[in-house]
Amino acid sequence: MRAIYPGSFDPITLGHLDIIERASKIFSEVYVVVMENKRKKYTFSLNERITMIKECTNHIKNIKIDSFKGLLIDYVKHNNIDVIIRGLRAVTDFEYELQMAMANKEMCSNVDTVFLMTDKKFSFLSSSLVKEVAYFGGDISRWVPKNVEKRLLTLLEESKGGVDI
Length: 165
Ligand code: ADP
Fold this sequence. Notes:
By secondary structure, the chain is an alpha/beta fold. The chain is globular, with a radius of gyration of 16 Å. The chain has a single domain, classed as 3-Layer(aba) Sandwich (Rossmann fold). The protein contains six helices and five strands, in the order βαβαβαβαβαα. The protein has helices at 14-26, 46-56, 72-78, 91-107, 127-135, 146-159, and strands at 2-7, 29-35, 63-68, 83-88, 112-117. It has a five-stranded parallel β-sheet with strand order 3-2-1-4-5, sandwiched between helices. It binds adenosine-5'-diphosphate. Adenosine-5'-diphosphate binds next to helix 1 and strand 4.
C-alpha cells in the first residue's frame, strides 16, 4: 500500500521522524510531502524544508520526498495513494484532524486517513515550540535531528533575531 504523510515540516522534528519511521514499517511506500500554502507563513523555504527531511531520512529506504502547492486530495488522486497518514498528539489535534479526514473522504471516497499516535516522549512537541525555545536560546537538541538544529541556529544567528517564527 502506498501512503502519504503530508505536512508543513517547518522544520521536521523528531516527532515527525518517529511517525515517518513507523509508517515506513507499515506501508510499502511512504510519500513524505511538504505542503506549501500561499496563505501560510513559513520560517524555512520549501527547498530548505525538503533538504532537512532528506538529510535525516537517508536510513529509510521506502520513502519518497516531494512537495506540493495545491489541494492534498489532488496529489493523492494523481499519485494513486491509498492512505493519508497523520500524527495525533493531544485531543486538541483531534477535532481539526477529524474535519480534514472527513472532508478528504468526501472528496475521494477510496482514500482513508490513518492516525498514528505520537510517541509519548514527543507528545508535546511541535515545530513552533522548537522554534520558540531556540529563539530564546534554549537547548533543542533532544527534539530535532542534528542537521535541523544546526540550520535553525544558523538561521537565528544570521537574522540576528529578525526571523519570523
Ligand atoms: P500541518 O501544517 O499539516 O499540521 P505539521 O508539520 O505541523 O503540518 O504536522 C504534520 C503532521 O505531523 C500532523 O498530522 C501533525 O499532527 C503530526 N505531528 C506533528 N508533530 C508531531 C509529534 N510530535 N508527534 C506525532 N505527530 C506529530
